[in-house]
């Protein structure tokens, strides 16, 4: 491979001086290892090729960091990224650029980079479970054939770091602070890479959906950068209000999907396809359950028992469990209760996964069964990949989960921000992808968010929702990976207008 190293010597020397000064304060005169210092303005470029949909795609991969500056132009942090650019495309003016984020908050973009859209894929089995030896293989479903992609790690995730412990975390760790500095970073990246003419897309997963929903408007209002598409994978609530009886009821369709998967529904429902079961449960939830829970203690015993029987039928739990919990079964109890008779718990982010608790009793699982499995597969894979294939050498720890607390969650209006961005920009389209077995960002809550974002139905021609038979990271299941990436490919093409098309409402 050809390797090009671009390094800002002045910035690195400045940081080294700061770190040495900090050492002297602690009476430690040992030199700081250069390999433990973040190179906040550097990149390593390597060259590769991959076959996607039977087509050879040559590409460059840039792994490096770009700075975040304060108001006086001084660097306060370095944001690590990996950038994949197809090399046989000369004119980039109509070549889409996808900016990708994961969530947490506090996790890097590793999950979608080596699990979903990137040119290399981690080794897992067809359902997404870890296999050994850990490592990487080509991704024949990558979207690199139709778009260049940059994966961004927010501050203190992956290799991204503040330049010093003295930089206040409030600059980065909060809904709106996160959006603001990342919008500035995207502007710098687009400018440096010469991509202002390119159609631009944001994709976020989990908390990354909060991030990109806010970024859509921030980029328009503060960076004057207009997007063609936003993709939400397993979206959060996006700051859209749903407390009380509504919040308590919306989980039932997810419970039904999970119970169907584990064969816990009555025979007449279990014999149906999942897509035939869920509309019935969704209709009951909105039209009967929400009004009933709203009545609270005014329900008579007969009504209460009848509702408990219906909820039992759709969830796989006993009617008695619902009666004991005043018709409201929290997620934690559901994950513990559904397979209690078999001695298992089920996963929060993907209820196909099973866990083993110390004791069968209790009202919540001891741990997240799916997350431990994912970390087992992803952590060695990304460390091997960045060092050995992309040749990014450092002794910094790659933070799969970084310290970003306390996180300021106040004034989260990201759902409304996204609605406003779509309304202001006739080019902007929205795609939402959900896994039916995701209990953290469940699919029916995602549907509800879309309904509330567009209460008048004026934007529905540019908004699409898709469901998959897996969990939070639906792409870890081989069949869903192929389908979901193909749908991304179609979305990117459809949201990229023909040359000369005006952005206006007719």
TrEMBL record:
Source organism, top-level taxon: Bacteria
Record GO biological process: proteolysis
Protein name listed in UniProt: Carboxypeptidase
Signal sequence interval, chain numbering: 1-21
Pfam families registered for this protein in UniProt: Peptidase_S10 (PF00450)
Key words of the record: Carboxypeptidase, Glycoprotein, Hydrolase, Protease, Signal
Keyword Chloroplast tagged: no
InterPro entries named in the record: AB_hydrolase_fold, Peptidase_S10
Tagged with keyword Plastid: no
GO molecular function, one term: serine-type carboxypeptidase activity
Coiled-coil ranges (or none): none
């Amino acid at each position: 491979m050809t390797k090009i190293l671009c390094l800002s010597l002045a910035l690195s020397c400045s940081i080294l001086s700061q770190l040495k000064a900090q050492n002297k304060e602690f009476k430690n005169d040992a030199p700081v290892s250069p390999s433990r210092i973040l190179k906040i303005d550097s990149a390593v470029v390597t060259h590769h090729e991959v076959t996607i949909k039977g087509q050879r795609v040559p590409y460059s991969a840039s792994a490096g960091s770009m700075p975040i500056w304060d108001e006086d132009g001084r660097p306060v942090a370095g944001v690590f990224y990996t950038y994949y650019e197809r090399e046989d495309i000369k004119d980039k003016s109509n070549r889409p650029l996808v900016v990708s984020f994961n969530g947490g908050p506090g996790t890097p973009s590793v999950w979608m980079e080596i699990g979903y859209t990137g040119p290399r894929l981690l080794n897992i089995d067809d359902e997404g479970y870890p296999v050994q030896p850990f490592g990487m293989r080509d991704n024949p479903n990558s979207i690199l054939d139709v778009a260049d992609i940059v994966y961004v790690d927010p501050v203190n995730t992956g290799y991204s770091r503040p330049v010093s412990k003295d930089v206040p975390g409030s600059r980065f760790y909060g809904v709106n602070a996160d959006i603001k500095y990342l919008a500035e970073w995207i502007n710098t990246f687009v400018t440096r890479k010469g991509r202002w003419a390119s159609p631009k897309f944001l994709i976020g997963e989990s908390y990354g959906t909060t991030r990109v929903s806010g970024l859509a408007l921030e980029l328009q209002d503060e960076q004057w950068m207009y997007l063609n598409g936003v993709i939400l994978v397993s979206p959060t609530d996006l700051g859209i209000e749903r407390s009380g009886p509504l919040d308590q009821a919306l989980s039932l369709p997810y419970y039904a999907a999970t119970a169907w998967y584990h064969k816990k529904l009555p025979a007449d429902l279990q014999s149906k396809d999942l897509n035939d079961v869920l509309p019935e449960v969704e209709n009951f939830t909105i039209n009967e359950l929400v009004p009933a829970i709203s009545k609270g203690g005014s329900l008579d015993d007969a009504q209460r028992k009848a509702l408990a029987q219906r909820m039992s039928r759709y969830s796989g739990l006993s009617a008695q469990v619902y009666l004991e919990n005043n018709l409201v079964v929290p997620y934690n109890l559901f994950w513990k209760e559904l397979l209690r008779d078999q001695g298992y718990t089920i996963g929060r982010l993907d209820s196909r996964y099973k866990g083993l608790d110390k004791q069968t009793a209790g009202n919540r699982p001891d741990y997240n069964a799916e997350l431990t499995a994912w970390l087992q597969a992803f952590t060695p894979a990304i460390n091997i990949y960045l060092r050995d294939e992309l040749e990014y050498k450092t002794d910094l720890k790659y933070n799969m989960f970084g310290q970003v607390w306390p996180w300021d969650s106040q004034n989260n209006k990201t759902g409304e921000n996204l609605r406003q961005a779509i309304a202001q920009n006739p080019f902007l389209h929205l795609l939402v992808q959900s896994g039916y077995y995701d209990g953290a960002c469940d699919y029916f809550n995602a549907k509800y968010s879309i309904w509330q974002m567009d209460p008048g139905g004026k934007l529905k021609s540019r908004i699409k929702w898709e469901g998959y038979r897996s969990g939070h990271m639906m792409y870890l299941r081989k069949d869903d990976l192929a389908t979901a990436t193909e749908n991304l490919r179609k979305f990117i093409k459809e949201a990229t207008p023909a040359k000369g098309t005006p952005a206006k409402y007719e």
